[in-house]
Amino acid sequence: MRDSGNTGASPCGSRKLGSPARAADIYVGSYHRACRKAADALQPDRLLILSARHGLLDLDDVIEPYDTPHGAADAVTGRVLLEQATMRDIVGLDPVVALGGARHISLVRSVWPHIHTPLAGTRGMGEQMARLAAIREGRDYI
Description:
Mean pLDDT is about 85; it is low at about 1-5. The strands form two sheets. The protein has a four-stranded mixed beta sheet, with helices on both faces. The chain has a two-stranded antiparallel ribbon with strand order 2-5. It contains five helices and six strands; from the N terminus they run ββααβββαβαα. The protein is globular, with a radius of gyration of 14 Å. By secondary structure, the chain is an alpha/beta fold. A hairpin with a 3-residue loop joins β3 (about 45-50) and β4 (about 55-60).
């Protein structure tokens, strides 16, 4: 996140390392990696990962591998995300950019209703990956 309030959020992923690791390293799936590269290209002052189990994670947070999809009984909720963002004093940040699928975006909107969602309007994984590549390469993505 930039001091001006620019925040980047990247989704977790179902593919993870098999042992505890930093949030920056534990998610090894191609979709997460594509989102991370695009988020890095946006050069936010702070980049957070949205974990279905843990909520908002800084890149250096060490977590255990887990298998919790969005919507599961032990999955994070919008209320929990709002509490986490409040504790981190990042609720009022603007702009906030979120990269990820509809479930992730829905959760992020519970904290930042006016987030910028560059993947909105895509029709499937192929279009999302192409848009992420455009962001990563600095091409117009809107």
